[in-house]
Design goal:
heterodimer; A: two-stranded antiparallel ribbon; 4 strands; about 65% helix; globular; B: about 375 residues; alpha+beta; outer membrane lipoprotein receptor (LolB), chain A; Protein Transport Mog1p, Chain A; 8 helices
């Protein structure tokens, strides 16, 4: 069942079009920055984008910052919203469940497919932006203090300390993992909505509405009491991987809150889908 | 049909129960009774005052709602006193600490090192600045809002007339803390109460709340969201000049020159308000008042004074001060008065006293001979 769903994901041109579009946006940004040599000042615009002019190794992290607020969650909501509702609207759900497979197993297969899509998407953005960064901005070492050029220092952390290639690799891997996990909450919400309706669009829009509401409340001082429990609250905490030392508090909370959203909405999806009358 | 609906109901009930458990967990942990500390308020106050050597590291969130207008030449003070500031602090002693102001797009760090001196790192300007010389006076900085520093300062200001009463214990940042309330005796103070929670054994303050005269909710809240009572490593406290980072040295800030370079000598009292001798940590600051009703008087250079008055006029109230004029900005906690006499410098009076008190004091400010 899982293999079938994964094969469907891989064979669908739509999946690759979405991933290609996700990869394209950072490339466009990189081209503009490389041509004009004008990056947003440090502390403004997408995180770490200012640092890529001196060395392209940080561009994967900057690229993730570019796609994280809108494009990545939209892509995840579209794929997750289509997971069950898409089958229902195409009339395939009835036939799918006529096979000797349980609905819970089908839901688990859909979830694993969603996780796979998120991982592929995030890794594709990181991979293509790494190549783009190296090609457009180079990978030359940066000057260090009074000692001149050190071949082992390629970037600076948000705390002003030197980062070696190994540091950048480990921290980027941490950021990629955190961002992928951060997308699971929105995926779970969309998957639940997908079991409620036979319209993929409605499920995706419902998940996006939840995210926009969360984003508005996070920015609202008067909603500070509920802010730590909102799905988007810790999305931007991935930059903590690029501080010295790495600050784990918000990262841990980000992982925990995504875990709660996944558990709650998958549970709700299971409760609804397992006993739902399938008419299409 | 009935079997299906029973199954559906069972599933939904189990999901609802799981959701309720997950959502209720933080409230449950918060409601878990905190053991009452076996320490009197007098002991707690003494321990907080002598906690400058207690090491810690932790994440602090400070929220201040003063409603100050944006004023020129005061750096980030306006944003510091109006909004939420997130900091991570590593503290070994008063001579060795580091405090990072964190944003999602960067950070601004202050290093205080016995071995290396004072450094400031600003990611926005990609600049590590060494502060050369001592700072007899300076503008407020984010590290002043850290609960231990803020509590020690407020408790040291509170006079013998200040009433100290116990507060129920709270769990703050993962540690159990005993509480005390300071109620100022001075009727001229804009502060109605200061609540402080601290670790009973060490006196490390973990939460501070300041209430204004007319506010039922605190105007300033500074608390640890997570705290560890462990010593930070030396490497964390050492400033590092990273790759591609610019470096600069800075001598005493402009504000010191302002204090020493403008206006006549300030008197030992303004009317019946006596000057504070040797303000802790700020020896060159001319401060007046007592307890939690204090204000500073700063003579300004003409250009700075004029631009401050222009900025303040739109947000404040213009008042007549004898033969001169003044602009008052009243916030729930801090009152600002810019006083301009025909033959004197422009004075900035700022403190935790009422507008009436500042107007009264301004009448006694010296003019040029």
């Amino acid at each position: 069942m899982i293999r079938v769903e994964l094969a469907k994901l891989v064979r669908r041109p739509r999946s690759w079009v979405i991933i290609a579009l996700l990869c394209l946006l950072p490339i466009v940004v990189a081209v503009f920055v490389a041509v004009t040599h004008v990056a947003p000042p440090p502390g403004q615009g997408p995180a770490l984008l200012s640092a890529v002019l001196s060395n392209g190794s940080l561009f994967p992290a900057a690229a993730l910052a570019v796609v994280l607020p809108i494009f990545l969650p939209v892509a995840v909501a579209v794929v997750a919203g289509d997971a069950v509702a898409g089958e229902a609207s195409s009339g395939m759900l009835r036939y799918l469940l006529a096979r000797p497979v349980g609905r819970t197993r089908l839901l688990v297969a859909k979830l694993i497919t969603l996780v796979t899509f998120v991982l592929i998407a995030v890794l594709a953005v990181a991979g293509t932006s790494y190549i783009t960064g190296r090609l457009l901005f180079g990978d030359k070492p940066v000057a260090v203090g009074t000692t001149g050029i050190s071949t082992n220092v390629i970037a600076t952390s948000l705390s002003g300390t030197s980062l070696t290639p190994a540091d950048v690799l480990v921290r980027t891997a941490g950021a990629v993992t955190f961002i992928a996990v951060s997308m699971l909450g929105v995926g779970a919400i969309a998957l639940f909505l997908s079991t409620l309706t036979s319209s993929s669009l409605a499920a995706a829009l419902g998940a996006l509405a939840a995210l926009i509401t969360s984003g508005v409340l996070v920015a609202l001082n008067s909603a500070a009491a509920v802010s730590p429990y909102l799905p988007t609250r810790y999305w931007l905490a991935w930059v903590d991987f690029f501080r010295q030392p790495i600050l784990w508090r918000q990262l841990d909370q980000g992982y925990a809150i995504q875990g709660v959203y996944v558990l709650v909405f998958l549970g709700a999806a299971w409760a609804n889908f397992a006993t739902k009358d399938i008419t299409s | 049909m009935r079997v299906v609906s029973r199954q559906a109901r069972r599933r939904w009930v189990s999901v609802a129960a799981g959701t309720a458990l997950l959502c209720g967990l933080p409230a449950l942990v918060g409601a878990w009774p905190v053991p009452v500390a076996a320490v009197s308020v007098a002991q707690l106050r003494a321990r907080i005052l002598s906690s400058a050597g207690v090491p810690y590291q932790g994440y602090v969130e400070s929220t201040v709602d003063l409603g100050l207008p944006s004023l020129p030449d005061v750096g980030d003070v306006t944003s510091l006193l109006d909004g939420t500031t997130d900091q991570y602090a590593w503290y070994l002693s008063a001579a060795d600490w580091r405090a990072d102001v964190l944003t999602t797009a960067g950070e601004t760090d202050t290093y205080q090192s016995a071995a290396y001196g004072t450094y400031e790192w600003n990611y926005g300007s990609n600049l590590l600045t060494q502060i050369v010389g001592s700072e007899p006076v300076r503008l407020p900085r984010a590290a002043d809002l850290l609960p231990p520093a803020l509590a020690q300062r407020l408790l040291s200001y509170a006079g013998t007339a200040t009433r100290v009463s116990p507060l129920p214990a709270e769990r703050v940042g993962g540690v159990d803390a005993a509480g005390l309330r300071l109620t100022p005796a001075e009727s001229t103070s804009t502060i109605s109460a200061v609540d402080v929670w601290a670790v009973p054994r060490t006196g490390l303050a973990v939460k501070v709340e300041i209430f204004g005269r007319d506010s039922t909710t605190p105007v300033l809240v500074s608390q640890f969201l997570a705290v560890s009572l462990t010593r930070p490593s030396a490497a964390i406290l050492t400033p590092e000049l990273g790759g591609g980072v610019n470096f600069a040295t800075s001598t005493l800030p402009e504000v010191t020159r302002i204090l020493h370079g403008y206006g006549p000598e300030l008197p030992s009292s303004l009317g019946d308000v006596a000057r504070v001798v040797g303000v802790p940590g700020l020896p060159d600051l001319a401060a007046y008042g007592s307890g939690l009703a204090r204000f500073a008087v700063i003579p300004l250079p003409p250009s700075t004074g004029q631009s401050l008055i222009q900025a303040a006029t739109t947000a404040g109230v213009t008042v007549q001060l004898g033969s001169g004029t003044g602009v008052i900005i009243q916030t729930p906690l801090v009152t600002v008065l810019l006083s301009q006499q025909p033959t004197g410098p422009i004075y900035l009076l700022v403190g935790t006293v009422t507008a009436t008190e500042l107007e009264r004091a301004a009448q006694w400010l010296p003019e040029y001979p």
